[in-house]
Amino acid sequence: MVILHHYPQSPVSEKVRVVLGLKGLDWRSVEIPRLPPKPDLMPLTGGYRLTPVMQVGADVYCDSQCIIRELERRFPEPTLFPEGAPGMAWGLGRWTDGPMFRTAVALVFGAGAADLPAEFAADRGLLYFGPEFDLSALTRTLPETLAQLRAQFGWLEDCFADGRDFLTGARPGLADALGYYLVWFVRGRYAQGPEFLESFERLCAWESRVKDIGHGNMRAIDAGEALDAARDGEPAAPRQADPDDPQGLTPGDQVEVVPDGVDGAPPVSGRVHALAPQEIVIHRSDGRVGDVAVHFPRVGYRVRRV
Ligand SMILES: N[C@@H](CCC(=O)N[C@@H](CS)C(=O)NCC(=O)O)C(=O)O
Description:
Blueprint: E1 2-6, H1 11-22, E2 26-31, H2 42-45, E3 53-56, E4 59-62, H3 64-74, H4 86-112, H5 118-129, H6 135-140, H7 142-159, H8 174-189, H9 193-198, H10 201-213, E5 217-220, H11 223-232, E6 254-259, E7 268-275, E8 279-286, E9 290-297, E10 301-305
Parallel strand pairs: 1-2, 2-5, 4-9
Antiparallel strand pairs: 1-3, 3-4, 6-7, 6-10, 7-8, 8-9
Helix pairs in contact: 1-3, 1-8, 4-7, 4-8
The structure holds glutathione.
C-alpha cells in the first residue's frame, strides 16, 4: 500500500497527489507537521525533512522526483508519458521545481510578508533562499518577480494555442502535474492570484481539466500505523551494484546523502544498498521501524562517502 507523508498546503505534495489521481490509485495519507521537528517521519527517513515522502512497507522514497518515478514503475498504466520521451518531462521538472517554483515562492512570500508567521518565514527563507534571505527585499522586488512569473506562465499558456487539452497532447501526464501545482500554489496562496491568472485563459481552462482528474482514493491513517507498516515489512528493493558509477560507489559503502543547494538540510547516513544512474538506495536501521531502504534521486542530491 502506498502511504504519502505530506500536508494539505504543500505544493510539491499537490504535484504527487495529481500523479496519484492520474493513475487512479488507492493510497493512505499521513499528515505531517509543516515545520520540524517531524518525530514520526524521522524514523523512516533518517533525517530527510522535506515534503512529501512516500512509503511502501519498509521502502521509503524521498523527493517527488523519486516518488513519481517509483509510482510509474509500480503502476505503469496509464503512463505519465503518453507522448513518450520521458526524459523531456524529467528535464521540464528541473525548471518547474527549480527556478519557477522559487519565483512562485518569492511572489507568495513577498506579497504575504505581513501575514507570514516568523518561524515559518525563517525556516522556508533559509531552505529556498539561503542564509542571505531577506523578506522585505522580496516585497520590494514584487513587480520584477511578477514579470518573471507572467512570462513563464505565458510559456505554458502558449502550449494550448493549437487546441490541445493537456501540455503534451490529448492525454494528461507528468508535464501536467508539473505545471499544475504551480498554478494551484499561486491561485491559493497569493492574494491576487485569481486576478493574475485570469489573463491566461487557456491555462485556466486546462487547470480545471487537471483539477477534475482528482487525487485518486485517499484514506487518512495515523503516523503510528505507517511506522508499524515499516516495522512489519522488509525492504523490497534488491541489492544492486553499478560498475559504471561515476563516484565509484559500491553496495556496503557508508555514505551521507543531502539535497543539493538546500541550506540547513541535515544529511541522511546509511550504507549503500542499490545504485543506478537515476537512484541511490541506502540501508538504515532504526529502533522504531527496524531495517528500511531509503531511496533518493541522483539528480539534485549529493552523495558523500564517509
Ligand atoms: N526536491 C523536493 C522539494 C520538496 C519541497 O521543497 N517541499 C516543501 C513543501 S512543498 C518543503 O519540504 N518544505 C519544508 C517542509 O515541509 O518541512 C521534492 O521534489 O520533493
